[in-house]
Amino acid sequence: MSDRILTVPNAISLLRLLMVPVVGVLIFSGHMVAAFFVLVLAGVSDWLDGVIARRFDQTSRLGKFLDPSADRLFILVTITGLAYQGTIPWWLVVAIVAREAAVGLCLPAMARRGYAGFPVHMAGKAGTFALMYAFPLLLLAHVEGTVGEVAWVVGWAAALWGVFLYWVAGLLYVKQFRDVLTGRAVPA
């Protein structure tokens, strides 16, 4: 892991971060299909920066911070906009934000004990992946006809599965936090 800042993956991640307010404006102004396409572009850029970072040995500490930050901001902005538009209920927003808050509140105590954060679990990756394709589908659900109906069903299935996996990962992180507090874990 390098301390490099000027890398192609970091530039792609920065561009993805700049797309977050664009998605927010599009959703809050009711341009759901346009928001769908921007989210798809963001998803492709997320995949691309990871491929480039690994293939060309351009992983960096900054990239390790930017990539998940962009994912979380996209999720937050998208779910808030979807709830504002009445596409999803506010309880779904609360469920996702509560998990983020529960895990996030553990991080300062972890850092004081020499832990940079939590190792990523497959449940967390799968949950994030499910949410990252659920919400664009729920945007696409605003299209009339079969495309919208299929997007609605698949989007909701993915959203519910994603929230479940998100919480499974959150509970695993809380267990790790408990292990750190009780001295059963050793810093990497």
UniProtKB/TrEMBL annotation:
Q: Cite a GO CC annotation.
A: membrane
Location in or out of the cell? Membrane
The record, for PROSITE patterns, names: CDP_ALCOHOL_P_TRANSF
Q: Which UniProt keywords apply?
A: Lipid biosynthesis, Lipid metabolism, Membrane, Phospholipid biosynthesis, Phospholipid metabolism, Transferase, Transmembrane, Transmembrane helix
Q: Which InterPro entries does this UniProt record tie to the protein? A: CDP-alcohol_PTase-I, CDP-OH_P_trans, CDP-OH_PTrfase_TM_dom, CDP_ALCOHOL_P_TRANSF_CS, Phosphatidylglycerol_P_synth
Task: Give GO terms for biological process.
Answer: glycerophospholipid biosynthetic process
Membrane topology recorded in Swiss-Prot or TrEMBL: Multi-pass membrane protein
Positions of transmembrane segments: 20-44, 65-84, 122-141, 153-174
The answer to keyword Membrane applying to this record is yes
Top-rank taxon: Bacteria
Please report which protein family the annotation says this sequence is part of. Belongs to the CDP-alcohol phosphatidyltransferase class-I family.
| Name by which UniProt lists this protein | CDP-alcohol phosphatidyltransferase family protein
Origin organism of this chain? Ruania alkalisoli
